[in-house]
Amino acid sequence: MTSPDSPPLVSPSPCPAPPPSLPSSPVPSSPAPSSSSLPPPPSLPPTGEVMVLALGRKKQRVLIALSILPNLFLAFLLSSDPLITLSSPHHCHLPGPLPSPEVLNASLPWEKGGRPGESGGLSHCKQYLNGSQSAVVDCVAGWDYNVTEGLRNNIVTEWDLVCGQYWLVPVEEVCFILGILTGCLGLGYAADRLGRSKTLLASLTLSVVFGVLVCVAPSPPIFIVMRFCLAAASAGVYLILYITRLELCEPSLRLLVTMLAGLMTVAGELLLLAVALGCQSWRGLLGAGAAPLTLFLSYGIPGVFPESPRWLLLSERSADMNSFTERRNSNRDLRDDESFTELDSEPAPSSRPHLSYPELFHSRNIWKNMCVLGFTSFISHGISHCYSSFRGDVRGTAPSFYWTYLLSVCAGGAAWLLLWATVDRFGRRGILLLAMTMTGLASLILLGLMEYLSETAITVFSVLGLFSSQATASLCILFTAEIMPTVIRGSGVGIVLALGCVGRLSSPLMDLRNHYGYFLHHVVYSSLALLAVLSILLLPESKRKPLPQTLSDGEQYRRPPLGRRRRDNVPLLSTPNPET
User: Fold this and answer.
1) Contact (Cβ atoms closer than 8 angstroms) between residue 485 and residue 551
2) Membrane spanning segments where (predicted)?
3) Strand pairing partners for 126?
4) Which of 214, 354, 471, 557 could be 226's S-S partner, Cβ–Cβ 3.0 to 4.6 Å?
């Protein structure tokens, strides 16, 4: 743009200037155009990073904190299954206040151990008929429980889910995991099509409703159905908060924020154990997790927790985006550095990102990355249970519940600290490869040398495998969220989490079979872990890279060929250096 007083611009040319000529008669010239008549310069469309930075630093950090805080209470709903299904030592109920050991030996038959290495003991499900040792019958008057760990009143002790009814406990665990799987798939897809904020509000509402219904369940079948629905809704809240949190961060903050959210979940799991020791009731424990979620329903108030700016950018709102640009240009002087209120506006009811299904089906690179990360998530979640129960499977002496629970929780917290210290320095793919290699090596050492390892060595390698498998599982989810484009990020992360749930199904299925075949189960997972190590080499690197928005952006996240030479970036017409 030129002003009337400035000389006319002359385009540079390699030809010499013409010789001066004699003055001629003046030629009337048209007046220079004014600045008001010139068309405005074209404005570039906003990108995802620009939309995030437009929020302002203060508002961005407030929204990130609001997305981390619910993890403290989601742990009550997603991690309480070991506490409410813990089976305590029990025997048939005998008349009298507290039977002595002599009375127990005279009233209960002796049974051999169920697994190799286990010593026998008094029967849990049989008793002598009328005190005579001639006939053995099932328990007639119920059971007495010797509760020394966990909740004094859980679903096992309240509904007597032991002996002939014990199969309901693994069924409940399987249905709970299937509920998480369903929530990840269904609500992840809904978050991509309907928006993050709407799906989050619906998931929070369902979590509160089913959390109350679970607490008042009168029978095991109703409890299992309500528990399935609660798991689906809670998993949807966790997933939507995860991807929204990442979409609110620039590349330098993504790992730190994800680590803080993971540590908040670890704190919730530790708080869960403390509340369990205090209330001693499974209904109060689940109510303590569902009640605080009602406070987060305030996220539905306009302006409190707005829609993800990256999802808004993809919405089919050409008119809204044009008005967004016009209002930004007209109110540029009214905008401060801390807030940008144009992003607080919710999308139109009919707006949703455009997704081309034929293009998605032909996005081979996206499918390849999703399959590799899903397979890795399946292995890391499935093999984690093998390390927790390995000592009990081999030696027949299972550790206490508190030791197993605290070890698993602390291993998860240490895994997040390790990822925070190394992933941004050495890259996502390198640390994922290292963690999965450590997982496979720990399994091979435990399986190949278990006859020669001491109790201390078994504990050390079990802790190492548990730590590395949890680090692998956590990094898989972060990796997936970073390389999946925004248009399918919810579905992509949901699929990887769902495959992790498929791996977790092996734990209740092994419990249902009383851990028969644990060796073959561990061998299969160890072999698949070595295959996962090779497949990780096919993944790209997402360290300090912007989040992809569209399918075409996601297709560009690929690993370069091994034989590719590095090209020079020197332009064709470059000015040579005279000093050289």
Assistant:
1) yes
2) 200-219, 225-243, 255-278, 284-305, 402-423, 430-450, 456-479, 486-506, 518-539
3) 138
4) 214
- Residue 145 has φ and ψ, to the nearest 5°, of -115, 140
CB atoms inside a 10 Å sphere around CB 138: 11
Left, alpha or beta for 271 (phi > 0: left; psi -120 to 50: alpha)?
alpha
Phi first, then psi, for residue 558 (nearest 5°) are -140, 155
Give Cα separations from 259 to 241, 489, 539 (angstroms): 14, 19, 22
**Cα 462–chain centre separation:** 24
Report d(CA 404, CA 271) in Å as an integer: 16
d(CA 525, CA 382): 7
CA gap 110, 200 in Å, rounded: 54
Given a contact cutoff of 8 angstroms between Cβ atoms, the answer to whether 23 and 461 are in contact is no
Range among 296-305, 469-478, 542-551 with highest mean pLDDT value:
469-478
Contact predicate 460/405, CB 8 Å: no
Half-sphere exposure in the Cβ direction for 562 (13 Å, CA) = 3
Which amino acid is residue 507, in one-letter code?
S
Give 101-127 pLDDT, tens digit per residue.
777 766 777 776 555 555 667 777 887
- The torsion region of residue 46 among left (phi > 0), alpha (psi -120 to 50) and beta comes to beta
Of 482, 440, 481, the C-alpha closest to 464 is: 440
Three state DSSP letters for 3-25 = CCCCCCCCCCCCCCCCCCCCCCC
pLDDT at 3: 44
**d(C-alpha 542, C-alpha 550), whole Å:** 16
| Phi, psi at 382, each rounded to 5° | -75, -35
The two structure tokens encoding residue 123:
């029967």
- pLDDT above 90: percentage of residues in the chain: 40
Token couple for 506: 């092996």
Residues 6 or more apart whose CB falls under 8 angstroms from that of 133 comprise 106, 109
DSSP code, position 55: T
Q: How far apart are CA 58 and CA 309, in angstroms?
A: 16
The whole-number average pLDDT for the span 51-72 is: 86
Both tokens of 508, joined, read: 């209740």
Look up residue 410 and give its amino acid: C
Integer Cα distance of 141 and 130 in angstroms: 12
Q: 3-state secondary structure string, 79-129?
A: CCHHHHCCCCCEEECCCCCCCCHHHHHHHCCEECCCCCCCCCEECCCEEEH
HSE on the CB side for 521, CA within 13 Å?
A: 24
Place of tokens 């407030």: 62
CA distance 423 to 425: 5
Residues making up the chain, counted from first to last: 580
Backbone angles phi, psi at 92, to 5 degrees: -65, 140
Q: How far apart, in whole angstroms, are the C-alpha atoms of residue 489 and residue 482?
A: 8
For 77, what's the count of Cα atoms within 13 Å in the CB-facing half-sphere?
A: 36
Smallest Cα–Cα separation from 200: which of 300, 55, 292? 300
Which residues have a Cβ under 8 Å from the Cβ of 186 and sit 6 or more positions away?
Answer: 232, 236
| 234 CA to centre of own chain | 12
Which runs of E-coded beta strand occur in 255-389?
Answer: none
What is the DSSP code string of 186-211? HHHHHHHHH-HHHHHHHHHHHHHHHH
